[in-house]
Every structure is written in C-alpha cells, then in structure tokens.
Task: structure prediction
Amino acid sequence: MQPPAPHAMTSTDWYADPAARSWTCAPPAREVAAFHAALPGYAPTPLVELPALAAELGVGRLLVKDESSRLGLPAFKILGASWGVHRALTGHYGLPADATPDAVRATVAERGPVRLVTATDGNHGRAVARMARTYGVPARVFVAGGVHPSACAAIEGEGAEVTALDVPYDEAVRRAAASGGLLVQDMGLPGYTDVPRWICEGYTTLFTEIDERLGGPPGLVAVPVGVGSLAQAAVTHYRSGPGARPALLSVEPDAAASLLASLRAGRRTSTPPGRTIMAGLNCTTPSETAWPLLRAGVDAAVAVSDDEAARAVRDLADLGVDAGPCGAASLAGLRAALPRLPEQGTVVLLSTEGSAANPALT
Result:
C-alpha cells in the first residue's frame, strides 16, 4: 500500500513572514539551564539523526528532538512546569528567585502549603502535579475535554486532584483561574503574564541542548503549537542573540489552527472548538503572552490533518522514534510546508511527547 500523499495546501493552510528572521527580542533568563541541570535525574534528551528521512524529504540533515522521556515524564512540559512552579512558589513565599528547592520545601513546611491549580490538555497538568509533589504542596488540575482517561489517571497518580471537564481547553483555563489557589498556567491571560513567561523560559533549555549538540543553531526548527508557549520559547531563544538564526515553522492541527488564523488576520483571534488526535495542541486561542512574539518572530505556519499526523507517528515509529500525535505533528508539518520553503540544510523536528503521554480517544 502506498502511503497517503501530503494534502495540497491552500492559501488558508499557510502563512509566511520573510521579515521574521531579522526581528529581535529580549533574551530569556540565563539561569534556567543551570536550574534544570541541578534537578535530580536531569540529562539532555536525545537528538536523533534520521538520514533516510532526510533523503526522502530532500534536506541536508534531519534530526528529531525526542522528548518521550524528560525527567521521568513522557513529554517536554516538565521543563516549563519545574521553572514556573519554582518561580511561582518563591514569589508567593517572598523568597529570592535563586532560592534552592530545598529552601522552598523548608518554607512550605514551616509556613504551610499553598494549593497549585492549573488547566491542561494532558502533559502540562501532569508536570505541574509532579512539581507540586516535589515541593510538598497540593495541586488541583482541570482537564479539558478530549483527553484520554489514562492521561487523567497519570495526573492523579502524581497525587493531584483531577477535575475532568467536557469543555474546550480555553474554558478549562478560565475555570482553573477562577477556582482559587496559586495558578500555574502556560497560557497568558489579561493581568496574568509572569508565570506564563517563566514557564516559557523553562522551555528554552530544550533549545540550548539542541545548539550544544549541533555546535550552533540548525537551519530550521519545526515546532508543534497549542497555545504557543513552546513556540514562544523558540522565538525568545533564537531571536534574542547574535549569529545564525534558524527559520521557525509552527505546526497546528487543522481543527484547531488558532495561531495560523491569527497570523493571517494580523491579530490574536480564536477558532471554533474542534476535535483532533493531537489533543495537546487542541487550543482555540493563542496565549496572550505568546502572541506578540509569535506574530513578529515566526517565519512560517502550517496546519495538518489527523491523517497526516497519524502517518507521521507510524513513520517515526518505523525509524525507532517514539512519538505521539502531537510530537509527530512536526514531521507532518514539515512535509506539508517543504514545497513552499527554500532548500534546507539542517532541520530539527521537535517531538514533544511519546506515544504514552496522551493516547488518542477512539
């Protein structure tokens, strides 16, 4: 059986901004990578080279940043949650930002715990729950509709209280924000920007690892996008310093392509709720915090179908890379975008989760 061909993109599936590569922004906090390096069990995740796939797609080198096992969890989200929770707790207790985790735990034990709250499509909630347990504080996680029961069970397994909702992600965020407690959310809201910024700073460690492994930035990075926090981290990392700047390609489900719609409209906008096997990317509005950076710093954006993501999952599995639909979306997006991109040298695909992170509902 022949594999399905990539869909023929229409103008509504695609966006490009030739000026994005030259745009400059402020750098992220420099202490983030050192914070992660001090966490128990930290190690850079693999950057897997796939020469056969590079030859098939006609690029010089193709590598996959495999986030299927990051600090004991099956997705990259713990990078942002660990730094975001740490900064949120140090702020809550009036501690300096460079306080050690042991100092934060001692303060929690002395002054009493605060409850962390968050909303999730799966991976972020589990990561926040893991950090809550690490710091000795309770957590309540609001889970949006379309998340597999096993992902909910994994969050509960971290010791968090789970509130499952049959609502879109954006509404789950609103309910979490209104519930009381210390909100640790990766989506910026009116008047709520510090924690989302810290979470995005946490994600920049991923790009630091890529550059260190390659000896410099790649030529193109394909980034799966939900509310846009990881893409925001890519922009702040690659648009804030001198030297080579990779092209940044955002990839979304065609059922929830709010960033693509916003970029095409020139303003932050929402799309109707949809259903997709890419559950962690099923977000109808870009983060308020991320939007200004994505509008200026993203080179290209594309939307892909569930069938294209499923094909990418199978193809990566055949090559030994464990990727769920959200992680494999980067390969599906690259396939769709390549006909409109200039010739590429070194391409990095971000595979943001393993297959066990959030199985698709059937």
About this structure: Residues 11 and 85 are 40 Å apart (CA to CA).
